[in-house]
Design a protein that fits this description.
two-stranded antiparallel ribbon; alpha/beta; 7 strands; 2 domains; about 50% helix; about 375 residues
């Protein structure tokens, strides 16, 4: 097929989430090509040098993730010849797999070397690949430690679960992502943290780290019923209310209901969820029908599922659940399918951080999530 046809086929399934990663990786590969062609790294003094660098030239490239802009190195005395751009269309699929499976997720630097050799850079070393990964880790760390500049009124916490290698075996670990709606109505991704154990101590540390970066102004915290989170919210955010995500509440109640009764109970729960007296009546009914676990769940959370009603009605739909951050979890899950299990916490956070940076940029440059002028 012609190159244009290949690119057109790839663009059928665009994925904006990886544009930054692809751009970063290809720029680094071209820098390695430049170093090999002139025989010296940046500012290196050596008799082997055959030319001098002369900045960069912007070069646009169409990929399956959309158009990206690369920094193509330039030489003073002769032309820089890169094999990245002309060969990109043929190896893009393999490069994507290498990025996802290898240097992004830390599986094997040798896989990256195999793909880079297809790009024409035969002598790239494992240390070069590791350096690229390290630089990307630094970008993620900088993003996750940046100051939180504006007060946050609504604070959301939600989790995705992944298999991560620990020693000689794999564990299920939770990656918690914290987001918020700022006082100007825009959403922002505030932080992320991997948890081995979900208890009050974890939440207290996580919240304190965010507060040290400037988190303030919280009036409502929305999450599912993670162990210890309610008490940690009370201690860390004085004056704030905790809202149990209504969707998670419904799932928890229905979990112990027999399949033949689920639809009936689900309809009754939807009708009762905004009325405490109706919830109490439903809990009594479930107890009488030998659904004591479901009744206990209602009793445990009956005063935590309606806290959103203390805020403007126009905000209710978006502050009664954690649905607003579901896209993040879905994207993280989709990314992880090609891996199966992550080799380390760092590799998981590297992938998550890249995605979170892109989503955050979309949020703060897009439309307002809520109008904060309403009262």
């Amino acid at each position: 097929m012609e190159q244009e046809d290949l690119i057109r086929d790839y663009l059928v399934d665009q994925d904006e989430g990886m544009r930054r990663v692809v751009t970063h990786f290809l720029n680094k590969v071209m820098q390695e090509e430049a170093a090999q062609q002139i025989g010296a790294d940046h500012y290196e003094r050596t008799d082997k040098r055959s030319a001098y660098r002369n900045g960069f030239k912007k070069r646009n490239l169409i990929t399956r993730y959309g158009e990206i802009t690369l920094n193509k190195p330039q030489f003073r005395d002769r032309s820089f010849e890169s094999k990245v751009i002309p060969k990109y269309a043929r190896v893009e699929k393999a490069l994507e797999a290498a990025i996802i499976e290898s240097y992004l997720q830390g599986v094997s630097t040798r896989r990256v070397q195999d793909v880079v050799s297809q790009l024409g850079v035969e002598n790239i070393s494992a240390s070069t690949v590791s350096r690229i990964a390290k630089e990307l880790d630094d970008l993620v760390e900088e993003f996750l430690k940046r100051p939180i500049e504006l007060p946050i009124r609504y604070f959301y916490v939600d989790a995705s679960y992944f298999k991560v290698r620990s020693g000689g075996h794999y564990l299920n670990k939770a990656l918690f992502v914290a987001t918020g709606v700022r006082e100007d109505g825009y959403r922002e991704i505030l932080g992320a943290k991997i948890a081995d154990v979900e208890d009050e101590g974890f939440w207290f540390v996580f919240f304190e780290e965010l507060k040290e970066r400037g988190l303030r102004g919280i009036q409502l915290v929305i999450s599912d019923g993670h162990k210890g989170i309610q008490k940690a919210v009370q201690e860390s955010f004085l004056g704030a209310s905790w809202q149990l995500c209504n969707v998670h509440f419904e799932r928890a109640v229905l979990k112990s209901i027999k399949q033949k009764d689920k639809r009936e109970i689900a309809n009754k729960l939807m009708d009762a969820i905004e009325d405490e007296s109706k919830l109490q009546q439903l809990a009594a009914e479930l107890a009488n029908r030998n659904y004591s676990k479901a009744a206990d769940t209602i009793d445990r959370y009956i005063f935590d599922v309606g806290n959103y009603k203390a805020f403007p009605r126009e905000h209710w739909r978006r502050i009664r659940t954690t649905n607003g951050v579901e896209r993040i979890n879905k994207e993280l899950k989709r990314r992880s399918r090609v891996v199966g299990a992550f080799p380390s916490d760092q590799s998981l956070m590297r992938v998550a951080g890249c995605l979170l940076m892109d989503i955050n940029e979309e949020w703060i440059t897009g439309n307002k999530y809520l109008s904060m002028e309403v009262e």
